[in-house]
Amino acid sequence: MRESVPPRAEVVAAYPVSIAPVRNVRSTLIMGAIASITKAGYYDAWYAGVPPQPRGELLQMVAGVWVPVDIALAHYRACDSLGLSPDAEAQLGAATLERVRGTLLGTMLRVANSAGVTPWTLLAQLQRFWNRAFDGGGIQVLRLGPKEARADLVQNVLTETHYHRNALRGLLASVLQLFCQKAYVNERRAPREPGTMSTRVQWV
Q1: N- to C-terminal Cα distance for the chain?
Q2: CATH fold for domain 10-203
Q3: What is the mean pLDDT of residues 146-169?
Q4: What is the H or E stretch that residue 68 is in?
């Protein structure tokens, strides 16, 4: 279900005309997440939480290829089983960005410190950056105030895991902080429609 546009909100980035469900995830993102989990000391618990068949595929991945969403889902479910707090999951999402941001953001990093570049610069292109990491899914971004936005995600089965949702929050906040002093990304509400996520984004 697509989120509606509230009164007085400005559409910064509209949903794509056609949106397919997420079918694949870029291996680089998952490999970065596993590396962050390992560095934080959770590898053994994560390993125990992944069933044998997807575990083999996850551990044999190479960078830069598409991984079927069911394999990615096994990874995120194992992350759920770690029992971490939402803040800890968001911090791991931010740590993952540090490992993969060159791949996902490309030339955007080279203009992060240019005059006139703000978080709106990134938010307006969020679907483009999403498409580098995910095959499928759609994003809408709304301007709610001078430094406040709402970002809505649909058609992403991975949002059934709280780790994925919180890691996305941390990853997005970390990206936005390339353009501002501090960014805050919070999930708007629960329960959610299946396959969706809606966040409130603010910065100073």
Answers
A1: 31
A2: H-NOX domain (3.90.1520)
A3: 97
A4: strand 66-68
